[in-house]
Every structure is written in structure tokens, then in C-alpha cells.
Amino acid sequence: MADKKGKNVIPADEAEREVVTMEDKKGKKVIVADEAEKEVLDAGEKGKKVILRTNDNQEFEVDESLAIESGTIKFLIQDGCAEQAVPLANVNSSTLVKILDYWATHKSANKDNADEVKEWDKEFVKMGKEDLFELISAANYLDAKQLSELLFETVAKHIEKMTVEEVREYFSIENDFSPEEEQEIRKEVEWAFS
């Protein structure tokens, strides 16, 4: 699909809601959060860009104002290390699309749409455990504090009603206590198992 200027516009399938990518003059992908942001870019109101390269070698040209939601990327920009593509060794392209979508949604948040953003967050975190853990790892690597808090809260809600055995299974933790050791611990901290 092409826009008014003949640029290729491709909906990114990986995101929970539609995220649009465009190709710039050099053929690099440009992430825009939605059609409204695409219209701003088409109108020529482009800000400074930073190129992010994922661990699967996909490059995304992103507004610097969005990229600095990452403490890691912000530091690299401030240090002058973002003139070339910023390598994101622990982030794959599908995860980065989700993160950029989150940042764009929260960047446009205000008191008038706070309830909508909260509902959006609830839908955003509806994903499988593996995807959730992948997103947590990437958010941690990128030092994306607000996103990390949302994801940690999501995991906490998932495990709050689980038994010790269910938590072990959820996190793939092997029980390395003997039955006697486990019984002794249960006696010492009985309150934790009730």
C-alpha cells in the first residue's frame, strides 16, 4: 500500500494495535504509531531521527523524542553515540514494535484520555508468558522504567494467587530442596505458605 507521496506503508502485524511503518527515501523502515502520526510525518513536520537496529538486523528509524523513553538510548544519544544505527543486542524486531507502540501511546497520554490509556494497557499486556518475558527482558535492557513497571505488575497479578509449586512451574524453577529441608522451611515461615 502506498501513501500520497508513493512511500510504502505496511501495517506491522506484530503489534497489538495497528502500528504503521513507512519506508524513507533510503529504504529504511520508519515506525509511526498510527495513521495520525503518519499524517504529521507526511506533512513534513519531522523531528530528529535515530536508527535502531534489532538483534535480527532490522533497522527502524524512530523519532528521537520517542526513542529517549529508553534510558539506554537516551544515554547513547546524549553521549553522541547514536550517529550510526544503535544496536539493540537483546531486542528483536517484533518486540521493538510493541515497545514503540507502548511509548507512542503513552507519549500522547493526557488527563483527558487517561482512562483510555489504562484500558489500552490492559489489552497490551494480554499475551503469552513467553512474549511477556521477552518484553520484560527488552524493557529492562532498554531501561524503559514505566513499561517495566507495567510488566512487573502484570506478572505479580499472574502469580499472586498461585501456590509455591505453581510459581516454580511458571518461572521454570527447579525445586532443589529435599523433602525434609522443604518441610523445615515451611515450619519456619508457615505464614508464607497460607
Explain what the structure shows.
With 194 residues, the protein is α/β, with parallel strands linked by helices. It has 2 domains: 9-152, Potassium Channel Kv1.1, Chain A (2-Layer Sandwich); 162-194, no CATH class. It is 47% helix and 14% strand. It has helices at 35-42, 64-67, 71-78, 93-107, 114-124, 129-142, 145-159, 164-170, 179-188; strands at residues 9-12, 19-23, 29-32, 49-54, 59-63, 86-88. The radius of gyration is 21 Å and the shape is elongated. It holds the Pfam family Skp1_POZ.
- What number of structural domains do the residues give? 2
What separation lies between the terminal Cα atoms?
Answer: 57 Å
Poorly predicted residue ranges: 1-17, 39-45
Proportion in helices: 40-55%
Strand content: 5-15%
* CATH topology-level fold name of the largest domain: Potassium Channel Kv1.1, Chain A
Please tell me what the overall shape is: elongated
Rounded to the nearest angstrom, the radius of gyration is 21 Å
Number of helices: 9
Second CATH tier, the architecture of the largest domain: 2-Layer Sandwich
